[in-house]
Write a structure and sequence with these properties.
mainly alpha
């Protein structure tokens, strides 16, 4: 961490001396406006991915779904090999251009890590925990909420953390189908051969990814019970 701060500080000094910070500062208004769009895209698509991915992972982990679960997970894994840009292009074909297809494409790109980690986390709960709960007379729903979920939360949060960080880094592609976001600065800067404009979009995107990762990690630290949280 200390090394990273030293490197960042050194790069900041170099950028200041080269006038790069002043060049990026010209786009301050655009950065604020497009960052708000970027956050909205990530919040909606990431929220939908969590809302769909967690229940789907829980459903696949149920004993009655074990046989079909592997086939479904393989299908999801196959879907993840499709480039995100192709997913966005496919969404644009059926949904047109704008925010809606962008959100759909980002949702699809974020879904797999959440489903996979939820499924793996539930399967990772020791069998004797469930047997003990059953022996105590707990019902299936009580076992799910009181035994399985608390023990699987750490792995589930890891999937959510990965998915949201990837979502932030992928969201610039939404600009290519009219979805807005910081990709407008990045791709316009590339087209115009303006490094400062490109960095005005790339740097906030990287910072957002770091902040989201840190925020989800901090949330997991306090939400995951102490007894099953290796960080506490």
């Amino acid at each position: 961490m200390a090394i990273a701060l030293i490197v960042a500080f050194s790069l900041g000094i170099i950028a200041q001396r080269n006038g790069l910070i002043d060049s990026i500062g010209k786009y301050r208004g655009d950065i604020v406006f497009l960052t708000q769009q970027h956050i909205k895209l990530v919040a909606i698509s990431g929220g939908l991915a969590i809302a769909v991915g967690v229940p789907l992972g829980l459903w696949l982990s149920r004993p009655g779904m074990r046989r079909a679960a592997e086939t479904i997970m393989q299908a999801l894994n196959l879907g993840s090999t499709i480039p995100t840009l192709a997913v966005l292009a496919l969404a644009m074909t059926f949904l047109g251009i704008g925010v809606v297809p962008a959100i759909f494409g980002l949702w699809a790109a974020s879904l797999l890590p959440i489903v996979r980690n939820t499924y793996a986390g539930m399967l990772g709960v020791p069998a004797h925990f469930i047997e003990a709960a059953t022996g105590m007379g707990m019902r299936p729903l009580q076992i799910l909420s009181g035994v399985e979920l608390p023990n699987a939360l750490f792995v589930m949060f890891a999937g959510i953390r990965t998915a949201l960080a990837v979502n932030v880094g992928t969201a610039p592609l939404a600009f290519l189908i009219g979805g807005g976001g910081l990709g407008e600065l990045i791709f316009t800067g590339i087209d115009l051969n303006e490094p400062s404009m490109m960095l005005a979009g790339a740097i906030p995107t990287a910072l957002l990814a770091v902040l989201v990762d840190y925020a989800v990690g901090a949330l997991a630290y306090w939400v995951v019970p102490r007894g099953v949280n290796p960080l506490r």
